[in-house]
Amino acid sequence: MGFFLRTILLSFVAGLLLTLALSAQLKQDVAPTAPILGFSPAHATAEHQLETAFQSIPSPEKASDWHHTFTAEPHPAASERNSQLADFIAAEWRKQGWEDVALRRYDVLHSRPRSVSLEMIAPIAFTASLREDAYDADPDTKNSAVSSSYFGYSASGDVTAEVVYAHSGNPEDYDLLRKNGISVKGKIVLVRYSNPYSYRGFKALTAEREGAAALLIYSDPAEDGFTRGKVFPDGPWGPESHIQRGAITYDYIVPGDPTTPGWASVPGAKHIALEEARSLPKIPALPLSWRDAKPLIENMNGPEAPKDWQGALPITYRFTGAVKAHVKVDMDTSMQPYTVVEARIHGGELPDEWVLLGNHRDAWAFGGVDPSSGTASMMELTRSLGELKQRGMRPRRTIVVCSWDGEEYALTGSTEWGEQFADDLKKKLVAYLNVDESVAGAATTAGPEGLSFAPSAVASLAPMLVETSRDARAPSGKSLYEAWRATSMRDSKASVRPLDSELVETRIGSGSDHTVFLNHLGRPVINLGFTGDYGVYHSMYDDHYWMSRIGDPTFEYHVALTRIWGLVALRLANADILPFDFGANGAALEKFLHELEQKNKLKSRLNLNKLHARIADFEKAGSSICSILPVTPTRTWNFRA
Ligand SMILES: [Zn+2]
Fold first, then answer.
1. Reported pTM
2. How far apart are the CA of 115 and the centre of ligand 1, in A?
3. Which of 73, 255, 361, 391 is surrounded by the fewest CB atoms within 10 Å?
4. Separation of 413 CA from ligand 1 center, angstroms?
5. How many Cβ atoms sit within 10 Å of the Cβ of residue 624?
6. Measured in angstroms, how far is the CA atom of residue 404 from the centroid of ligand 1?
C-alpha cells in the first residue's frame, strides 16, 4: 500500500502540473474526447489515438497460425517440445522488437509416469485402458506422444484392495460413509470430478487423511460429458474415453517446487529432502475416463448411495461391495529444468514501475484451450505492442511479459520467478495481468449473445477494467462492455442488466499464475478470459481441432482477448496517475466481511463492529484519494443490498 500511496502522491504533483499545462493547450487545438480514469484530458486524447492504432493490429489469421504452432505436439513441462517452444517464443519476441529477452532456468522437482495400470480382479476381471480413443476426423488424436492417464506428483505404489465410492471425495462425503458404517482405511477410493467443485489436490489430501490406500478420480458425464450436450468430435463436451489429467500437489500449502518452499529454484539452490516436502501426496492416484470407471461402479453390490451421489451413467451408484481392484503407479519423480521466457519494453518516463503480463506455456497434452488459446492471444499482443514500439511508441512505465513453465504442476515457473525477483516486484510491480485460457468455451454452441467474458480482478482495479471494456471491441462488433453485460445477464438468469460493480468477480482464488503475485507478494492482479461449453479440459481432445472447429473457428475471440488485455496494459502503463480505486476496494472488503458474518453466523459470537468501522474509514480514504485523479469515477461503485 505504501508504495502506491507514495506513487499516487508523487505522480499527482507531476500529473497536476502536466494537466494544467496541457489542458490550457488542449482547449485551443484538440477536440474533447471521452475521459479515461487516471489520464489528464490531453493524455486521454493521445491514449485513445494509441488504442485505436493498437486495436487495428491483431488479426484472427495470425492468432490461428500461432495456435496451430503451439498445439502441433503435446508439450508438458520438462518435455523437449516445451523447451523448443520457449526458444521459439524468445526468438519471436526479439523479432517483434521486445527488449532484454531472457530465458530463466529453474531446476525443480518434476513428476511423470513410467507405467500405470488398473485392473478389477473381483467379481469379474477387467483391465482399464487408461488411454483415450483416436478419431479419424482429428489426426492429432493418433499422435503416439500423448501420455496415458496420470496425476502429476502422485506417489508410486502397488495396491490391491476393495473399492469404495466416495462421491466428490470431500470431507462430508466420508462423514456420510462413516454414518453408513463404511471405513475407507486401506481401501481404494473412487471419487468423481465434482459439483460442488473441489480441487483434485484437495480430494487427494482428504483421501490420504481418511487413511485410503489409493485414489481414483473419474469424469462423470453429468459434469462434462453427454448429459451436457454433443461430445467430441461433434461437439464441445468430453467423449467416453476422455481423461482429465492434472496435478494433485498440495500447492495450497506450498506453491511451486515442493523442495524449495519460499525460495527460488535457481541452478545451485538448496533443496529439502522429499520426505520433508509438505506438498507431496503420499498415496498413489490416477484419473479415469467414465468408460474405465463404469465397470467398477456397476459391479458393486452394497448399499445404494443417496440420490445426490448418483451420476449420469444408467446404473445404480452404490457405496461399495464385491469390487476389488489392483492399482499400480510407477512415477519418475526427479529434478528437471523448467524455463520462464521474459522480455520487456522499457518505460520512457517511469522505467521502475512495471506492468507484468503472463501466460503459461506447458500443457497436459496439446493444450488447445489450456493454455495455447492464451498463448496465441499473448503472441498477438506482443506482436501488436512490438509494432507500436517500432512506430515510435514507448510506454511511460515498463511493460514486462513472461511465458511461464510448469503452471500445471504447482504454478511452478511463476512462483519460482516471483520468489527470485520478490524484492524488485514488491517495489516495482504495478499490477499483474494473467491470461491462462483466453477462450475456454465453444462459440459454436454459445447462442446469439456469444461466449461469456469472465474476468476476475482485485476490487481496486475493477472500475478501470469495466471502463476499459467500453473501448474494447467484441467479436459481435459491439463494445466488449455491451457484450459482457448481455452474457452476464443471460448467465445469471437475471431480469435486469447487472450493475457495473456486479460484472467483475473480485473473489480471486488460486489455480493459475497470478497466485504468487497476489497471495505472496500482495500485488494487484487481473485474470482475463472467455468461457462457455467446454468438456475436454486436460484431455488429449483439448487441441487445435477442438478450437478451430468447435471452440473459436474464426479466432475472433482470441483477438478480442488480445484487445482487452492490451488496452488494460496500455492504460496502466501510460496513466498520469495509476487508476486504482481504493473506495471500490473498501466496498468489496465490507461485502466480504458481511458474507463471512452471514455464512458462519459470526455475529452472535464475535463483535466485528471495529473491523466494519476500519473498513468504512478505508473506503472513505480510498474514495478521497480517487477524487484527486484527473478524471474521477463517474459511476458510484455500489453493491445491491
Ligand atoms: Zn492453464
1. 0.93
2. 25
3. 391
4. 12
5. 11
6. 10
Per-residue pLDDT reduced to its tens digit, 11-50: 433 333 334 343 444 444 445 578 999 999 999 999 999 9
Please say if the pLDDT value at position 634 is more than 80.
no
DSSP class per residue in 576-632:
SS----HHHHHHHHHHHHHHHHHHHTGGGT---HHHHHHHHHHHHHHHHHHTTSSS-
Other CB atoms within 10 Å distance of the CB of residue 56:
11
At residue 603 the predicted structure's pLDDT band, cuts being 50, 70 and 90, is: confident
User: Which residues line ion ligand 1, judged by CB < 5 Å?
Assistant: 370-371, 436
Q: Is 407 a catalytic residue?
A: yes
Span from the CA of 218 to the centroid of ligand 1 (angstroms) = 20
Q: How far is the CA of 374 from the centre of ligand 1 (A)?
A: 9
- The C-alpha atoms of residue 33 and residue 46 are separated, in whole angstroms, by 10
User: Which residue bears the cell 522499457?
Assistant: 346
Q: What average pLDDT does this structure show over 519-536?
A: 97
Q: Which of 132, 353, 407, 467 is catalytic?
A: 407
Task: Report how far Cα 134 is from the mean position of its chain's Cα atoms.
Answer: 28
Residue 223 buriedness (CB in 10 A; 0-12 / 13-18 / 19+): buried
What lies within 8 Å, CB to CB, of 170 at 6+ separation is: 194, 196, 198, 202, 203, 206
* Integer angstrom CA distances of residue 263 from 129, 185, 311, 370, 418: 40, 36, 43, 27, 9
* For residues 611-621, average pLDDT: 94
Query: What is the pLDDT, as a whole number, of residue 138?
Result: 98
